[in-house]
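Translate structure to sequence.
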């Protein structure tokens, strides 16, 4: 990614076009990770040349849409009250996390298809940090297990969240049950043996 401070200032109409393209990409890729750039351009109300003038490749467009989705998700997750008992705080975080993951699971699939694994991991640094701190606090409070590596527990939580999203997309888990299934699964994994 190019540092925004190093980029020349764009005209206001170019910024609006970019915003429309990224919003259209987020919307279409969130329902179909294989959405075509032509469809995204059409949904954004711009021509293919305009889209490719701002995003030289489909990967650049997906990166921008994924960054925007994570930014929106972080705004939701950073407002979750993580105070008090870590077990209760985890339930609140999982409920909000599930909503964010459910909305962007297909977009994540598109990102994993075209972006390097390191980029996807880099973009998840803030959610990983938040989860790591909460699990560590739960361990310190004696409500979460300490017999497994912290990084492993964080990854298991993310696997459960993304696995539930895959199950919902495949029709094997009802969306109305997903948040409860995710929370109970994670709580059982984190519980002290």
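Result:
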């Amino acid at each position: 990614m190019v540092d925004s401070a190093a980029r020349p200032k764009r005209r206001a109409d170019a910024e609006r076009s970019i915003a429309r393209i990224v919003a259209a990409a987020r919307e279409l890729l969130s329902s179909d990770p294989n959405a075509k750039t032509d469809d995204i351009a059409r949904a954004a109300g711009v021509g293919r040349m305009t889209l490719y003038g701002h995003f030289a490749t489909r990967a650049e467009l997906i990166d921008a849409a994924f960054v925007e989705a994570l930014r929106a998700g972080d705004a939701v997750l950073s407002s979750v009250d993580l105070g008090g008992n870590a077990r209760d705080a985890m339930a609140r975080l999982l409920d909000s996390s599930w909503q964010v993951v459910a909305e962007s699971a297909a977009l994540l699939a598109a990102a994993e298809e075209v972006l390097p694994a390191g980029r996807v991991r880099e973009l998840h640094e803030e959610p990983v940090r938040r989860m790591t701190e909460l699990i560590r606090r739960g361990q310190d409070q004696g409500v979460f297990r300490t017999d497994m590596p912290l990084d492993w527990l964080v990854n298991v939580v993310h696997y459960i969240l993304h696995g539930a999203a895959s199950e919902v997309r495949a029709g094997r888990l009802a969306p109305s049950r997903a948040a409860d299934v995710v929370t109970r699964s994670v709580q059982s994994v984190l519980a002290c043996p």
